[in-house]
Amino acid sequence: MAPTPYFSRVTSESAFRARFEAENGRNFSDLPHVAASSWGRSHLLACRVVRREPLRSILPILSPYIVPSDWQPSSSNEIDAFLQGPDSTLMAQSEHYLVRGSHCGPSLGQVWAAMAMFKGSQGRRRQGISDLQMEGEGGDDSDSDSDSDTEIRSKRPRRGTYQGEFVDSSTIQVGSSSPVHDSSQGSSSVGYTDPESHTFGVAPEDETLRLASCVIRHILYFAPPQDSVLEPTVVEFRDAKMIAIDDGGLCLRRQEPGKGFLVVKDHVALLEAKTQFQCLKNGRPIISDKCFAQMFDISGEYVEEFEKSTRTHFLHVSCTPWFDLSQRSGREHVVANICGIVRRATS
Fold it and tell me: Biased-composition ranges for Polar residues (predicted)?
């Protein structure tokens, strides 16, 4: 039986000490030297990571920068339309129509097109398995490799109905909802995910990254505090991937006379996309040890104490619940946190 994920188990300093003892934790210098992208449970223990309880909808570091009006109706027409969500019929439309033929406009149209890759039919993402089999079987009666082909297909599990991180489009919440609160949430807002169908129905990582980038860009274009046309300092989405660091992120640019907009800070926030949930418990996603080991920063005080046996300093990590973009509440929480990130970066 697989151990309980570190994310769920080590939520206090006392819990850390118990796990460090029980799992024969080692200092970082005693571990094999590997890239950070290959870190796992042993590195979490070596770095003395403690995940703070409870999960909060607003990251604590952003709380001083949160303004409730950011996600209220009419904060801007474009943000209001994003919060309202797409009509279910839009999930069956082409990106061309969403951008040009609907009322969405280019920015929001691309958001819904990216979401449709998850919420639309499976055929929207890839050619059907039956079609692929027909292509492979048609036009050639040679039996030179037919036995091996049949053996491979017979061992291939049946593909289930796709049930990824978004619920069925018919259940989209449209309309008013309660305001975002910096509330404690002990469980994910994502519904039940069937492990088998999730594995076989998974969308490529690039599609996940595109959805995230389209949503973030739309919010950066139209939400406070940079919701006016002329902004001398802006937070913008960075497409460039930093090898072994991130899959893109947010950067801060400032206008300089005669030079245009120059990068002031390249890593306001990092974006890390995954192909699928790597750990499911009772149908709910939990951050795996390998993913969690890529998601924390190190303070100067901690570095000074890093290899001391006293282990008096810990890396305390704060997390939000999962935000489901198919639900208004999930979209509100995303807007609130991104607006907070922008205010913190530009203050």
Answer: 168-191
